[in-house]
Amino acid sequence: MSNATQIPEARDRAIDSEPQYIDAPMTASAAFLVLAINPGDRALETVRSVIGSTADLIKDIRGRANGETFTANVGIGHRIWLALTGKPEPKELTAFREIKGAKHTAVSTPGDLLYHIRAASTDLIIEFEKILLEAFGNAVTAVDDVAGFRYFDGRDLLEFVDGTANPDGLDLPAATLIGEEDPDYAGGSYVVVQKYLHNLAAWRAQTAETQEAIIGRTKFDNVELADASEGQKSHKTLCTITDDEGEHDILRDNMPFAVPGRGQYGTYFIGYSRHLWVIEKMLERMFIGDPPPLHDRILDYSTAVSGATFFVPPRQFLAELPD
Ligand code: HEM
Q: How far is the CA of 3 from the centre of ligand 1 (A)?
């Protein structure tokens, strides 16, 4: 084969698999907008067309953002995948599977589309959501819309720095983006979201040492504690998944959210992964325990009130959705 034919093919492959903004930096603001698609072909047509033009809407907002960070990712859920795209499903895509431990449950809740929006300031997010939802009209119903904010030096509302162990450099695409194991969806990523509400009074009643043992890091200076090899394990140890291939990382971009007047303080968990099973394994170890019934004690102070799984396809896939 000559170079002349090789180069366009390589370029086409790269365009086909160009990911959405999975690796965007952590921002001061974020929104997690979960939508259900209403019944009927008209609704599906509208949704296809709005998703197909999301890239343009992102550009429109960026054009008005004075150089500030603004990104948005679209995820599509299992229930609607075939009707919406007409294409076979990514290999691992399923609905969020409920996980019932002896004491705590990772609930599964509805959601066909996820918009994960990150920006330097909230006005950009609200403007994007306003224009987006006007375009969707009555084709969708909003299931949830959570506004996340950066809390001091990137802490969650349990007051620990959150996101430290995230992969970076070349480890980031290796952990988050599908490769040759599912070539039709190379450049895509699985994403799992869960909304947690904290019982802050009960958490505050614990000593800093107890809290640190639960998380697996020191509170003030964020230093990792040693992994326990047996008995009760910390959150960080339960979420470390290793096998013959080594450690399987995911990318988290959790955000605190709060409505103080209603006593609501929470963490919106979001995890991107090349392999859905890695996040499912983490959840199993957190909720069922390793060994059972030694669940993650973070759950004694944090209740999962939602849980949904989506696939975040490469950009070109969205642009080519049928009209
Ligand atoms: C209430 C919800 C949660 C809170 C407040 C929380 C908080 C934290 C904190 C403070 C750390 C240590 C610092 C860091 O490395 O980021 C951590 C680590 C981690 N968490 Fe969570 N987390 C939550 C839920 C989850 C869930 C649901 C998963 C996965 C399904 C998860 C996966 C991880 C992973 C993979 C690590 C890094 C482990 C390592 O050190 O390699 N977290 N989390």
A: 47
55 CA to centre of ligand 1 in angstroms: 31
Pocket of ligand 1 (CB under 6 A): 156, 158, 160-165, 194, 196, 215, 217, 235-236, 239-240, 250, 252, 267, 269, 271, 279, 282-283, 298, 302
Pick from 98, 191, 193, 254 the residue to mutate for probing ligand 1's pocket: most ligand atoms within 8 Å of its CB. Answer: 254
What are the tens digits of pLDDT across the range 261-311?
A: 999 999 999 999 999 999 999 999 999 999 999 999 999 999 999 999 999
Q: Sketch out the chain's domains with CATH numbers.
A: 3-319 (3.30.70.3420)
Average pLDDT score over residue span 87-108: 98
133-163: pLDDT as tens digits: 999 999 999 999 999 999 999 999 999 999 9
Residue 198's φ and ψ, nearest 5 degrees, are: -95, 145
Pair of tokens at residue 169:
């450099």
d(CA 168, CA 179): 18
Report d(CA 234, CA 228) in Å as an integer: 8
- Best probe residue, ligand 1, of 107, 236, 295 (max atoms within 8 Å of C-beta): 236
Alpha-carbon span 116 to 138, nearest angstrom: 21
Structure tokens at 279: 């996040």
